[in-house]
Specification:
By secondary structure, the chain is an alpha/beta fold. It is built from 7 helices and 19 strands. The chain has one domain: L-arginine/glycine Amidinotransferase, Chain A (5-stranded Propeller), CATH 3.75.10.10. The longest helix is centred in the first third of the chain and has 20 residues.
Length: 352
């Protein structure tokens, strides 16, 4: 029987992969990093200011402790927890293709590179060169899932040549349409409907490829003009059928995905600034919206976000308060640092 079975973002969680911060680093400042993450440094002579290199030992240790606390809480709820293969030294190794050379990044966010839909695991064609071989951290797990009866699909490896990127373009237009490129975290699953963020971490061709890979059972909905930067989970959080948490700074009546227009919306309150170590944060304070839904009515929330917790509880959603101190530094909240592998439930359509 397939160990992989996921149809949406909220069914009761049974198995998940939790990432690791071991060996995490900011990769070398190449054209992909400037376009996707650090466009403000793309001007002449400014790329040298990108804070590349390993994250401080304190950041890594504190994050590992907090990830282990998350794992313990999940196990206490009966969730099977899997971890990536330790490969801390691999991230400093150089990767070279005929077009470019880069070092690595981290294995902190398994959701960025792997997408589970039904009984299928998809290796996404990620936008950053430094993440080209990131899925190798999960190779043993992928093989285990495959031998259990799961489908294992790898998107075509993108070339990621210099012509793929335009760091000087307006936000949301810095990935060109030369080949399918997207991070798995650009996708949210709503049963037979999948939301796909068209942004600097996912282009239109990526949505077309994903639709072709999944077939007629699913409909991939490209979300345009919603959020220009990376990933969808700090903009929309489906909590249960018919209830979605929205980012009021990004979501409007005009850009709200059509399949969510009949859902009840909770506007996320202003979030507490989480702070960050170092000179440049990797993401905005809205990373506090990156929640992990354990089942309808229970979510993991950063315990510093008391206002958000109160709003959720008023709508019948209980919270499990934990902490990721360096979420802004490393670029991932509780949704990003996990990959749901199996949730109980069946495939349904949620268009009300």
């Amino acid at each position: 029987m397939s160990l992989v079975s996921v149809h949406n973002e909220w069914d009761p969680l049974e198995e998940a992969v939790v990432g690791t911060a071991l060996g995490a680093r900011v990769p070398v400042a190449d054209r992909s990093l400037l376009a996707v993450e650090y466009a403000e440094y793309a001007g002449p002579g400014r790329w040298q200011d990108v804070p590349t290199g390993p994250y401080p030992d304190r950041v890594v240790k504190e994050t590992e402790d907090e990830l282990e606390e998350l794992c313990e809480e999940l196990r206490g709820l009966g969730v099977t927890v899997r971890r990536p293969r330790p490969r801390a030294r691999d991230h400093a190794a150089r990767v070279r293709t005929p077009d470019w050379e880069s070092d690595g990044y981290h294995d902190y966010c398994p959701r960025d590179g792997l997408l589970t839909v039904g009984n299928t695991v998809i290796e996404a064609p990620m936008a950053l060169r430094a993440r080209y071989l990131e899925s190798s951290a999960y190779r043993e797990l992928l093989m285990e899932y495959f031998t259990s009866g799961s489908r294992w699909v790898s998107a075509p490896k993108p070339r990621l040549a210099d012509t793929m990127y335009d760091p000087g373009a307006p936000p949301g237009e810095r990935l060109r349409e030369l080949e399918p490129v997207f991070d798995a975290a650009n996708v949210l699953r709503l049963g037979t409907d999948l939301l796909y963020l068209v942004s600097d971490s996912g282009n239109e061709l990526g949505a077309r490829w994903l639709q072709s890979a999944l077939g007629e059972t699913y409909t991939v909905h490209p979300c345009r003009g919603l959020y220009s930067s990376t990933h969808l989970d700090s903009t929309l959080v489906p909590l249960r059928p018919g209830l979605v948490l929205v980012n009021p700074a990004r979501v409007t009546e005009d850009n709200l995905p059509h399949v969510l227009r009949s859902w009840e919306r909770i506007e996320c309150p202003e979030l507490i600034g989480l702070g960050y170590a170092g000179d440049v944060p990797h993401c905005s304070p809205w990373i506090g919206m990156s929640l992990l839904v354990l089942r309808p009515g229970l979510v993991v929330v950063d315990r510093r976000q008391r206002g958000l917790m109160r709003v959720l509880e008023r709508h019948g959603v209980d919270v499990l308060p934990l902490r990721l101190t360096h979420a802004r530094m490393l670029g991932g909240g509780f949704h990003g640092v996990t990959l749901d592998v199996r949730r109980s439930g069946t495939l349904e359509t949620y268009r009300f």
